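Figure 2 data, in text form.
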Amino acid sequence: MKDQMYPCLWFDGQARAAADFYCTIFPNSKNISDSGMVVIFELNGKRFMGLNGGPNFKFNEAVSFVIPCENQDEIDHYWNKLTADGGQESQCGWLKDKYGLSWQVVPSMLGELMSNPEKGQKVVQVFLKMKKFDIETLKNV
């Protein structure tokens, strides 16, 4: 495991609260350690580090985490949980959670729908008007 890469997320004193929040949303998740300055946690079996680094840096859309979803229930689950308590909806499946971290909650079939030579451009035009993805609408284009 020592060779595994993982992201470090810079928080302003909220690393433990963020880790706890994320662990309630994703399956196979847990807090591993907390030194006060650094929190190590896993989301869906993937390692993350939360750093209580102070107010110098903020998250922005230049980095986001993609959550591919198999069905509408999964999209609704992640969308509703991550936008709760101060999160913000954006366009085309993007959102920011209450800590300012950006996520993309997308149907796992999106690439397949977009690559369809007959419907691909129509699919794009439809989802450009969406905030949260609606799989049935996309499939019926």
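Caption note: Residues 70 and 118 are 23 Å apart (CA to CA).
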